[in-house]
Amino acid sequence: MAKKDYYELLGIKKGASEAEIKKAYRQMAQKYHPDKGGDGEKFKEINEAYETLGDAQKRASYDQFGHAGSNFGGGRSSGPTHGFGQGGFDFSGANFDFSNLGDIFGGFGDVFGGRQEYTSRAQVGNDIETEIEITFQEMAFGVEKKIRLEKLNKCKECDGTGAEDGKTVNCVRCDGRGRIEVVQNTILGRIATASVCPDCSGLGKTAKHSCLKCHGAGRKKEVEEIKVKIPAGIEDGQRLRLRGRGEAGAKGAVDGDLYLRIRVHSDPHFRRDGKKDIRTSNSIDIVTAVLGGTLDIATLNGNKTVKIPAGTQPGKILVLKGEGVKPEGAVFAGDHLIEIEIHVPEKLSSDEKRLWEELRNLR
Ligand SMILES: [Zn+2]
Ligand SMILES: [Zn+2]
User: Fold this and answer.
1) Which numbered ligand comes closest to the C-alpha of 201?
2) Three-class SS string for the chain?
3) How is the chain split into domains, by residue range?
4) Over the range 92-127, which residues count as b (16 or more CB within 10 Å of their CB) and which as e?
5) Distance (Å) from CA 41 to ligand 2 centroid
6) What is the pTM of this model?
7) How many CB atoms lie under 10 A from the CB of residue 273?
8) How far does the centroid of ligand 1 lie from the alpha carbon of residue 180, in Å?
9) What is the assigned CATH class of domain 271-362?
10) What are the pLDDT digits (tens) for 204-234?
11) Given pLDDT bands bounded at 50, 70 and 90, which one contains residue 68?
């Protein structure tokens, strides 16, 4: 049984916009939904049609090669399928094995190469990556930073359409289809490939009058100040992704993403130990080590006095519970680990020397 034309199934014209396709699909799906007593077979067909037409790449392929082409769309299909339908060349009727096709043409790339260019990649907004430097304290508690970036933003004047007052007309060159067919003569005969219409960049519409602010581009360079919330506990070198905050896509195409690489400055006092704990090295004098006492140290939460037990050895680690980093989303903070160093005096007064010697004689 021949497959029905997807456009016909949805009751739309070939050059229909994405919005029109979506709208038609919604209406049809509602009408034929089996739960509402609709025709199950028809419902299935409609869904299949939308699966192809609702996806720019699959749709392009379908437009070019018919039902056979639609199977190439996401590259998910395998094995023999229908012959080529209304495509630029005709293998109709045959149960064609596509794996052989690769051999004949020396790889799909050549035959279907047009498809790659077809998806209007140039229109997608660029991703941007930039670095933000923060201090250790800012890492520990999280911080909000403002950055200034010069980037292509959507033109607010024309809402990105490039048209004065948003007024557009059907593109003359492609008659609103967004694509133009290029016929090439090859050793295998004439092969038609579709490519993006250069006049309307695949939109099928052109501006009646170009927007004066962006000269018809739909986007323009701006310096934008962006507020970024950096979560507590971020790692040095970690990247944050702000979806859609990169450069604007042209005329409705997807916006790029903004990637922020976070650089955490090293601190003269604090070091990080894993995700939550922090470490410091603190020196005590030898008498405190032997007899015990106290030590004043800087913690993330201000100065604290720590008890040093008698007989503390060099390298001993004292733990301040809950004085470490509390990463965003964590319930408990980590600990502050204090590595004890013992300072041995290099110069002694004569009194001190006498007392140390007395001590030696005692032992
Ligand atoms: Zn055009
Ligand atoms: Zn504009």
Assistant:
1) 1
2) CCCCCHHHHHCCCCCCCHHHHHHHHHHHHHHHCHHHCCCHHHHHHHHHHHHHHCCHHHHHHHHHHHHHHHCCCCCCCCCCCCCCCCCCCCCCCCCCCHHHHHHHHCCHHHHHHHHHHHCCHHHCCCCEEEEEEECHHHHHHCEEEEEEEEEEEECCCCCCCCEHHHCEEECCCCCCCCEEEEEEEECCEEEEEEEECCCCCCCCEEECCECCCCCCCCEEEEEEEEEEEECCCCCCCCEEEECCCCCCCHHHCCCCCEEEEEEECCCCCCEEECCCEEEEEEEEEHHHHHHCEEEEEEECCEEEEEEECCCCCCCCEEEECCCCCCCCCCCCCCCEEEEEEEECCCCCCHHHHHHHHHHHHHC
3) 6-119, 128-167+208-264, 271-362
4) eeeebeeeeeeeeeeeeeebbebbeebbbeebbbee
5) 46
6) 0.57
7) 15
8) 8
9) mainly beta
10) 888 889 899 988 888 999 999 999 999 999 9
11) low
Assign 2 a pLDDT band (cuts: 50, 70, 90). Answer: low
Classify 292 in phi/psi space as left (phi over 0), alpha (psi -120 to 50) or beta.
left
| Nearby residues for ligand 1 (ion, Cβ within 5 Å) | 171, 173-174, 197, 199-200
Of the listed ligands, the closest to the CA of 215 is 2
**Ligand 2 centroid – CA 217 distance (Å):** 7
CATH H-level, domain 6-119: superfamily: DnaJ domain (1.10.287.110)
Q: Which residues contact 88 (CB under 8 A, 6 or more apart)?
A: 64, 65, 181, 183, 190, 191, 192, 193
Q: Which residues contact 290 (CB under 8 A, 6 or more apart)?
A: 310, 311
Q: Tell me which of 3.30.420.40, 2.60.260.20, 2.160.10.10, 3.40.50.11750 is the CATH number of domain 128-167+208-264.
A: 2.60.260.20
